[in-house]
Amino acid sequence: MKEIFERTARIIGEEGIDCLQDANVIIFGLGGVGGHVAEALARAGIGKMTLVDGDTVDATNINRQIIATQNTVGKLKTSAMNERIKSINSDIQVNEIPQIYSPEDRLSIKFDIYDYVIDAIDDVSAKTDIIIQAKKAGIPVISAMGTGNKLRPELLEIADIYKTEVCPLAKAMRKRLRQEGITDVKVVYSREEPVVKSTPPGSISFVPGAAGLLMAGEVTRSILIAKGKKNE
């Protein structure tokens, strides 16, 4: 076991570290939420990660995105995240897909090779399709709802999308998912009413990051439980 995981092993044991190092996840979107998911999973010990994002880092991302600095502006987000992950743990296997996901791309991504699918993008049609493909493949999926125009990270929570309220993105997603016959989806969403209503939405450093860390925690615990049961 690598020294960097010594403190983590005190919580989940060396067998837990081995379990996470054997895990393979895919993350759609490396913005304020997705970037924090990727970093937290890397630090937890996830061994294989596919990063999907077609954007480059912009100066307007610096206020909330963990990969966004003065030195990374203009870089592909997948490349900036890959470099950051490798600086944490050089043994992680990282696969970059530098493109914006759309339903037409589904055939180029084999959802069934992953232990967990993480959706942290904004487009409703693409989010819906990611969930559909994960469900078809029988792979657990978690989806990020809106974190814009919010100031209170303590009002974020993990819930089934059909038990959410307040969030406009969740409302739009529920309608699409009902049409597809999908009856349950795990999401991270906020119970906070928007502080302002602006388009594009306003943002601040700590709300998207908190959502990403909640997602990473849920994914890590779920993988440990699932792999533990498989090995029983």
From TrEMBL:
Q: THIF-type NAD/FAD binding fold domain: from which residue to which, for each copy? A: 8-225
Name the InterPro entries for this protein: ThiF/MoeB/HesA, ThiF_NAD_FAD-bd, Ubiquitin-activating_enz
Q: Name one Pfam family in it.
A: ThiF
**SUPFAM superfamilies to which the protein is assigned, alphabetical:** Activating enzymes of the ubiquitin-like proteins
Please name the PANTHER family in this protein's record. TRNA THREONYLCARBAMOYLADENOSINE DEHYDRATASE
- The protein's name in its UniProt record: tRNA threonylcarbamoyladenosine dehydratase
- The organism encoding this protein is Gallibacter intestinalis
